[in-house]
Amino acid sequence: MLKDNLKNVEERVQEACDRAGRKREEVTLIAVSKTKPIEMLQEIYDENIRDFGENKVQELCDKIEKMPKDIKWHMIGHLQRNKVKYIVGQVALIHSVDSYRLAEEINIQAKKKNIIVPILVEVNIAHEESKFGISEEDAIQLVEEIAELENVRIKGLMTIAPYVENAEDNRLYFRKIKDLSVDIAAKNIDNVSMEILSMGMTGDYEVAIEEGATMVRVGTGIFGARNYNKQ
Ligand SMILES: *Cc1c(COP(=O)(O)O)cnc(C)c1O
């Protein structure tokens, strides 16, 4: 039962907050519902979850249309510039901005709609070839450039840590990105805040919370394993 999965995740989130001396309200649990059917999302919605994460534009838009309007949708997957127009104004937060050109396109679409779009800069903290995201070394410069765009607001950083058997192996990465966010915050760049740190997935969200995550993105732990063949 999804309800039991969620309860288990909620308990573990609370325990991680307790260990770190943090308040539960400091951490938003995002239910990552990619590949999962509407009925399953509804089940989790009925348990009072209002933050959902998706990684594909088409699927995200379909689900936005079918689900209740008070949901905060999070775009967490790699975003192509030609698809930006479909999600600007539809999502609460875009987690996966890793280039100036992408931010520029978000800015153009936001201007058209006369809105300000909150985004996170995705950092590839472990330098994994297979992953998107800007390197830690280039992050500050990218933040400074994007900060000039009028209709985009940087709210923090996002990272996808490596897949590991032992979550402890990612602690150092989470700590590194927290340090980076503190460094950026200290620069007091206009229009930039570092209030959000989106890190931690099913395998490592507890460690991420201990290291300062304010948003954790949990898919498998809530909805069960994904089957990419079926759909
Ligand atoms: C799929 C995905 C998640 C959730 O992964 P789980 O291991 O199933 O919790 C989190 N973040 C991103 C960016 C994802 O694509």
TrEMBL record:
Pfam family, one: Ala_racemase_N
Cofactor(s) this protein requires: pyridoxal 5'-phosphate
Swiss-Prot/TrEMBL keywords: Pyridoxal phosphate
Signal peptide (residue range): none
Keyword DNA repair: no
InterPro entries, per the entry: Ala_racemase_N, PLP-binding_barrel, PyrdxlP_homeostasis
Keyword rRNA-binding: no
UniProt GO MF annotations: pyridoxal phosphate binding
Sequence positions bearing N6-(pyridoxal phosphate)lysine: 34
Domain Alanine racemase N-terminal stretches: 5-226
HAMAP family documented for this protein: PLP_homeostasis
Protein's job: Pyridoxal 5'-phosphate (PLP)-binding protein, which is involved in PLP homeostasis.
Protein family: Belongs to the pyridoxal phosphate-binding protein YggS/PROSC family.
Protein name: Pyridoxal phosphate homeostasis protein
Organism: Roseburia inulinivorans DSM 16841
